[in-house]
Amino acid sequence: MKPIQVGLLGIGTVGTGTFNVLQRNQEEIRRRAGRGIEVTMVADLDVARAQAIVGTHAQVVNDARAVIANPDIDVVVELIGGYGIAKTLVLEAIAAGKHVVTANKALLAVHGTEIFAAASAKGVMVAFEAAVAGGIPIIKALREGLTANRIQWVAGIINGTTNFILSEMRDKGLNFDVVLKEAQRLGYAEADPTFDIEGVDAAHKATLMSALAFGIPVQFDKAYVEGITALSSADIRYAEQLGYRIKLLGITKRVAGGVELRVHPCLIPAQRLIANVEGAMNAVMVQGDAVGTTLYYGKGAGAEPTASAVIADLVDIARLAAADEAHRVPHLAFQANAMSDLPVVPMSEVVTSYYLRLSVADEPGVLAKVTGILAQSGISIDAVLQREADKVGGEGATQTDLIILTHDTREGTMNEALALMQALPTVKGPIHRIRKEALA
Predict the structure, then answer these.
(1) Closest to 226 measured CA to CA, from 181, 273, 159
(2) Which of 123, 79, 63 is CA-nearest to residue 98?
(3) Above 80 in pLDDT, residue 224?
(4) Beta-bridge partners for 398
(5) Are 119 and 125 in contact (CB under 8 A)?
(6) Which residues contact 308 (CB under 8 A, 6 or more apart)?
(7) Does 218 score more than 60 pLDDT?
(8) If residue 403 lies in a helix (H) or strand (E), which one and from where to where?
(9) Phi/psi at 364 (nearest 5 deg)?
(10) Where are any strands of DSSP class E within 241-350?
(11) Nearest to 236 by CA among 179, 297, 196, 300
(12) Phi, psi of 76, rounded to the nearest 5 degrees
């Protein structure tokens, strides 16, 4: 059978990995796919560098549209990234009748509904295993492996940069700013790390997993997004003393009012496997009614781990390209006419438990006032930790950190209680709030 001919749009880190793995493992891949898969055309602005990578194995051009216009190209692999030209090129490739493989989680999280509809109308596939968690096959697990399950929740460490930073803060007792600079020096963080440290990258990925888990449209604009920039080494240390680790999680959960979709730092019990995922590694937990809890762990980025996912998509296309659309796996796991309109629950209605750190004056009655506000708000306390007072300010002045763990309560209720506590004259600084997740 004639090999599948692939055009790469962009041959940076992931594109180079994809080309190299296809070359190295071509016979193994052919045995699995039933036909060869060959990169025969590459578009990159740096033609000389691209030519040095592919040699005589592929034609190199500086115009992505030349790849799309080539009638011999069966699959376009988009590795440019971003929302702009990448969206235009993907839609043009679909209009030209090309199947598309992309690692672009931002594009699909924001414009996925439009892109998947265009692909369905044209009868082509859009595959995106590499868009979430790098080399971990979590998309295939949600879309195919767990298809018998009514999925209840998904929670994942899906950004390696932030996990590296939090691991270093815990191991070395350093503050966020110091570790961020080290992460940039080592290449784990970009020169502009905003998407990573503010949780946006993780929210893109959580949006895709939510759509796959619950059969809802991609709705990035409704996700709650909070990063790790406000975390201090003190919070990580206190969490450790209380038997928890702090991780940035992407969470999506089926609840009575709809679906939760949120990204934020969480306290996780230290005995959970996911709490012990360190460095730049990724891990995703999925809770299904039939299978129970499953955990997927591995490298979430890098040239060849991500290439592994890109090539898995190419193999799927090689197997299914000749099948009619009704016999292919739907883009978002559920048949297009069976998608749900479950709403994304506002963050104010989310119910979870909390870690609170208050810097308070070390004087009688402070604890009683704080716990009194929580009691009046109907918020039950799980544990209290009060460290020894430090000298702050003038002679005899002291203040102390008061740590409170709560039981489950509604976020809006907690917000109101925090406002009342913050107004107390004995509370000497901003109250630090981190949500807790049992993941049980």
Answers:
(1) 159
(2) 123
(3) yes
(4) 391
(5) yes
(6) 21, 135
(7) yes
(8) strand 398-406
(9) -60, 145
(10) 244-255, 258-269, 281-288, 292-299
(11) 179
(12) -105, 125
The helix or strand, by DSSP H or E, that contains position 351, with its residue range, turns out to be: strand 351-361
**63-107 pLDDT, tens digit each:** 999 999 999 999 999 999 998 999 999 999 999 999 999 999 999
- As a three-state string, the secondary structure of 132-181 is CCCCCCHHHHHHHHCCCCCEEEEEEECCHHHHHHHHHHHHHCCCHHHHHH
Alpha-carbon span 50 to 186, nearest angstrom: 25
- Helix then strand then coil, in percent of the chain rounded to 5, is 40, 25, 35
CB 195 within 8 A of CB 321: no
* From 205, 222, 247, 299, active-site residue: 205
Question: For 219-224, which contacts have Cβ atoms below 8 Å and span 24 or more sequence positions?
Answer: 219/261, 219/344, 220/109, 220/110, 221/110, 222/261, 222/344, 223/261, 223/262, 223/263, 223/344, 224/261, 224/262, 224/263, 224/264, 224/347, 224/350
Give the CATH fold of the 138-299 domain. Dihydrodipicolinate Reductase; domain 2 (3.30.360)
CATH superfamily of 4-135+303-337: NAD(P)-binding Rossmann-like Domain (3.40.50.720)
Instruction: Provide the 8-state DSSP code for 225.
Output: E
Longest dimension (CA), the chain: 86
Active-site residue, 2 included: no
Q: Which positions ≥6 away from 116 have C-beta within 8 Å? A: 126, 331, 332
- Sequence-distant contacts of 55-60: CB under 8 A, at least 24 apart: 57/19, 57/23, 58/8, 58/19
**What's the CATH code, domain 350-436?**
3.30.70.260
Closest by CA to 37, choosing from 66, 71, 8, is: 8
Domain layout of the chain by residue ranges: 4-135+303-337, 138-299, 350-436
pLDDT tens, residue by residue, 340-376: 999 999 999 999 999 999 999 988 899 999 999 999 9
What amino acid occupies position 310? Answer: V
Using DSSP's 3-state secondary structure scheme, residue 413 falls into helix
Distance CA 42, CA 266 (A): 42
CA–CA separation, 314 and 336 (whole Å): 22
Cα end-to-end span (Å), the chain: 49
Identify whether the C-beta of residue 267 lies closer than 8 Å to the C-beta of residue 235.
no
